[in-house]
Amino acid sequence: MxxxxxxEMCFKLPNGQRLFxxxxxxxKKGDRMVIQxxxxxxxxxxxxxxxxLIPFEHGECTLENASIDKFTVPNWRTKVMYVPQTPVxxxxxxNDLFKxxxxxASQKNRTDHGDPIDIAxxxxxxxxxxxxxxxxxxxxxxxxxxxxxALALNPQVLLLDxxx
Length: 164
Description:
By secondary structure, the chain is an alpha+beta fold. The chain has helices spanning 43-50, 73-79, 94-103, 105-108, 116-121, 139-152; strands at residues 2-12, 18-28, 58-63, 66-67, 80-83, 157-160. Strand 3 and strand 4 (66-67) form a beta hairpin.
């Protein structure tokens, strides 16, 4: 069964130039896909479109054969989660962010959350990092904390934006 399907995805820049068009992605549970290309070719924009973080010109995404119309946008983003390549400097600590996201209506009634601290321990991140402000963490520590939080939120599709 297809878990995630995107078809005919097109994105037009403000100057009218198409950044990408007619992209098709079909993933089953457990699939991994890598999108490679030179800087500026639209990889990040495509991922943000798939997560419905930015509007696209044309196309459709489905999750388990249901379009976004079946979900609210926040619920879609709970199921199809984007993690940026450059960590966002959030206020507070990674623990604060995890607690805040879990309080969102789209997350509130879920019982399948993991523990980001347990996840991050496997990558050499100490428990203390989750109690430090984001600005006190290195870029790599921020990235691993953000990824651990995303994994603990247990999305069905995880869109990871990163460097080569």
